[in-house]
């Protein structure tokens, strides 16, 4: 009797699912991860048609990558015919399994072109379809106060022409941070050539003009009486549509810091409010690390140089919601990762790319050997889990989430303290400047030089 009842319930259950309207089934499928959708497609012909349809998988891509990335990716296709021939399910799988990048050099020496001078510890951002470069350090410990911009739009592989922008502010500095919040730039801190640390917060807005090119206006943001202590070589990223988080850096008297602060911009962007996050445990003091947004409420911290001048490879996730903030460390062991011994680094770039992954490039190890490698950290599943230490303490958990990518095309040199940013599609990464090896031994300061190269890194998809 029990068996008959179970069988009847199964049949009735199946019938009720099969009789659901298509839009209701779409809604259910959009709640499932990729593997579950593909398993659902194997149950019958009707479900296979539904669960492999281009309409559904474009919606899945929008769900997991965001509308901005999908729209930018669509506009990057050469024509409608190419777009029609590439199913979204195939594109989704390609992004999930990307294992190589292709590099392109974007600016050749030209006596008729005025280019930014080589530099390191500057800022580079993609905002309003433009690359914006500001400040940095130069030979002899000098700071730079110049601003450069170039419009990219959808022409990711074109030779680019930099335009120098006269702004007058902020003052010259290096080791500052600058992040994009909606269509604004938010800049904080940095160090000048006298060694002074800054604690000012600036808001910048890029404007495109049909005849006059690109302009950028900066304003010193009113933050009231509370702000983080002065610092440079810290890390920062945006979180949600109105907040920026910063962590660590080098403060007064060369002391490395371990504090975390968040600023929330007002709706009219006229002022901001800083507050300090207190969480136990929290990342130890460091500088030259990275902080990258991985969701509306989470950022991921990687690497840097610690109090004992050691180079780190630890991973921390900061979870921020209204009235709640918490750091959680994610443990793993290098011996579980192929070629993982090269992971500890400082002065690297870590950028969120399409598919909810972190692309890490360059940096240097404890012997000041600079890197030219590319690593992907797949943190897409971490962002979906509840932030609970017992779930994230497995040392083998991330072993299969680290992947070293194979570089193709142009071979840029090893570098550290460069800057990188990704376009709206999340597929194209722009890298500029940094410290590179000179003619002498890399460990000798005299053997270092500043770089002024701009190159493009494309995630290779077999389209």
Automatic annotation (TrEMBL):
Q: Which UniProt keywords apply?
A: Kelch repeat
Leader sequence segment: none
Residue ranges of the F-box domain?
14-60
The reply on keyword Nucleotidyltransferase is no
Extract the SUPFAM superfamilies matched here.
Answer: F-box domain, Kelch motif
List, alphabetically, the Pfam families matched: F-box-like, Kelch_KLHDC2_KLHL20_DRC7
- What's the protein called, per UniProt? F-box domain-containing protein
Organism this protein belongs to: Gossypium arboreum (Tree cotton)
